[in-house]
Amino acid sequence: MEPRNRTAVSEFFLLGLTEDPELQPLFFSLFLSTYLVTVLGNLLIVLAVSSDSHLHTPMYFFLSNLSLADISLSTTTIPKMLVNIQAQDQSITYVGCITQACFVLVFAGLENCLLGAMAYDRYVAICNPLRYTIIMNTRLCGLMILLSLCLSVVDALLLSVMVLPLSFCTRLEIPLFFCELAQVLKLACSDTLINNILIYFAAAVFGGVPLSGIIFSYFQIASSVLRMASASGKYKAFSTCGSHLSVVSLFYGTGLGVYVSSAFTHSPRKTAVASMMYTIVTPMMNPFIYSLRNRDMSEAIRKLLGRRPSFL
């Protein structure tokens, strides 16, 4: 097949979950509801943390930034899908596709870094409690957020810019409901060896390094907790990590499922469902996990919702 010149590429086509017109209204309602729940739930977490002085700690500071990243990731993918379903048009412009893929990389990479930072925070709190306030000071927490964001942006821009010189073939269908860089590369007729090497390297850095840090932190936490004599102390220590472990398991479990399904299945629908898990389900579930498993967060949300406007 003769490749098309890059300048001739005007749009890609997002296949999504189904092409059945009878199911489109159902999917539109489902994903609109999911998006609203995700935005409202995570926004509630941010407002609860900012309004309750008891939650002005590094753990909840990282949590509020994680909620903002979840809102951003969902906003990057779901609204375009809703517009396509409503318009019954699966197309996305070339520029729009590359831009969307870039933002997905930014916010997914940021979530990876934030989960690693939250694990380090729990490690210091449990294994070195006497120096916790000295180590996890405001300056360090701010620098960790800024560094995470900068690294994610630089990585996303580098990988996205590397796609621009590529030429594409005539079949420009992406088997997802959003543009993912790895799927875009599969449509290229040019040599993508360097691009694939960079993507796998970035995945190893932004996935492997934070995950390794999380595993190391919790290994140290478990060793420290098991040395505690008090059963109540052990329970309290583990309970502070329960929500974070649940979110880590959900995020990395679904993310790993996407790459496994892409490698071992040739079904576009299964790949789309797998990608939906970490881009839609995970951001929606995070507020529920933290509000249900964390007593302080539940109390802060209850106070926030119980407040009456001053003019009433």
Write down how many β-strands occur, each being a DSSP E stretch of 2 or more residues. Answer: 3
Which fold name corresponds to the CATH topology? Rhopdopsin 7-helix transmembrane proteins
SSE-based structural type: mainly alpha
Amount of beta strand: under 5%
From N to C, what is the helix and strand string? EHHEHHHEHHHHH
As a whole number of angstroms, the C-alpha radius of gyration is 21 Å
CATH class category name: Mainly Alpha
**Number of helix segments?**
10
Detailed description of the structure:
This protein has 312 residues and is mainly α. It has a single domain, classed as Rhopdopsin 7-helix transmembrane proteins. Helix content is 74%, strand content 3%. It has 10 helices and 3 strands; from the N terminus they run E-H-H-E-H-H-H-E-H-H-H-H-H. It has helices at residues 24-51, 58-87, 94-127, 132-135, 138-161, 181-186, 193-226, 231-264, 268-293, 295-306, and strands spanning 11-14, 91-93, 173-174. Strands 2-1-3 form a 3-stranded mixed sheet. Helix 1 (24-51) packs across helix 10. The radius of gyration is 21 Å and the shape is globular. The model is unreliable at 1-7 and 308-312 (pLDDT under 50).
Question: Could you provide a short overview of the structure?
Answer:
The protein has helices spanning 24-51, 58-87, 94-127, 132-135, 138-161, 181-186, 193-226, 231-264, 268-293, 295-306; strands spanning 11-14, 91-93, 173-174. By secondary structure, the protein is an all-alpha fold.
